[in-house]
Amino acid sequence: MKQDSTLDGKLQNFIDEETIRAEMAKSENPSPGLIKEILLKAEEKQGLDPDEAAALLRNTDRELDEAIFETAINIKKAIYGNRLVVFAPLYITNECSNQCQYCGFKAANKELDRRTLSPEEIKSEVEVLENIGHKRLLLVYGEHPTLGADWIAETVKDVYSVISAKSGEIRRVNINCAPLDVEGFRKLHEVGIGTYQCFQESYHRPTYEKLHKAGPKKDFLWRLHAMHRAQEAGIDDVGMGALFGLYDPVYEVLGLLHHARQLERDWGVGPHTISFPRLEPALNADIAYNPPYPTTDHEFKKIVSVLRLAVPYTGLILTTRENAEFRKELLEVGVSQLSGGSRTYPGAYSDPEYDRPDVQQFCVGDNRSLDDVIQSIVGEHGYVPSWCTACYRLGRTGEHFMELAKTGFIQKFCLPNGLLTFKEYLEDYASEETKRVGEELIRKELENYADPERKKLLTDRMARMEAGERDLYI
Ligand code: SAM
Ligand code: SF4
What we know:
This protein is of the alpha/beta class and about 475 residues long. It is built from 20 helices and 11 strands.
């Protein structure tokens, strides 16, 4: 499908402030009856309109808020089961020519120790990550004129080239970098990136322009159309996001939903993932210590729940910006992917003196190791961690993936494949205790497996893994 959100070659602003204001006005003081009606609609798993999402966010009745959480928990269970995709961010460079007021990497921050990893340093970082069990990475880059698409593509190749002693390799590299032109995205597509991720930060254009006064990022529309250009270049898994704390959260959620709709309209497929970072303290970024629109934990949990109801088949990503306790609650209401054992500066994973506020982008709220995170989500919550990359490697991406997801495919393929990657993790990387709780979970999952044919397939593959085979999927 071809994009049509440009008119006469000019980029169109498909985030219409008037429309969003009207949707917000319509949703003011929603009646209990309306909230219940919207929740009934959400249960059909067909998504919600932006004004319906706004009404849920505007509800102030605590009991009805609990009903919103309950519905989100049910939808999440029905579509995703108890599986959670696990990844780690890998910062490649903190050089940046932009002046995003909230970010420790902004050019004006002269106290930041600037680093760009060499190919050798990238490989060392990847080895560390592989040796603790990671298979999926999100590469993160500042934006700098000397570090363009060709260089980014080389860094991706460096990551894929590392095969660690423990038979590990990175099987999916996702990217979070500044928007490129179509040609640049094509280069990333050619080296086999998975998802291209880029957050609009704020969908409220005046706020966006106030916070990004200099550097290439000041162009709101260029950023807004990044996903469209990525699609044009053949990258059909795209991930969007908003940075919560900068502007009215209801406006931002509606912005995300309109963006998702525009992608569906123009490319036949919405975003593969949505992220919802909340502002965290960052070196010399005053606004990050004192957000103009602070979002309480309760509001934030509602945002995640409402997104789960509004776009049920879109992956929702949670990072270690949130602390361990709160992450558990967010997992229940809708998150389907989470990072673990994350560090947020270039070279951090190989740094013995880890904890360097003078190099990192922002402060991490959950400092546990990957093994601790896995032990907790498995032992305390019964989630199956998944490092599965089968769909991407079998070409089940973009529109094709969405079609499949809507027909119960996630339960049929993602869960068994997730279990296989979890078994691999337990065999190769887990601590004694994680292995104990993990084997117990796998035993229970197999016991309760409804489809006898699939169960047999799965049991056979588990046995082959115990005998030393790796990277098995359905
Ligand atoms: N430089 C690229 C860009 O801006 O798109 C990509 C990397 S940037 C490091 C990734 C994301 O970090 C940004 O899109 C922003 O949402 C988030 N971020 C920046 N400062 C933050 C802060 N203080 N707290 C939480 N997230 C922050
Ligand atoms: Fe640079 Fe991205 Fe940080 Fe902005 S958010 S200063 S573009 S790294």
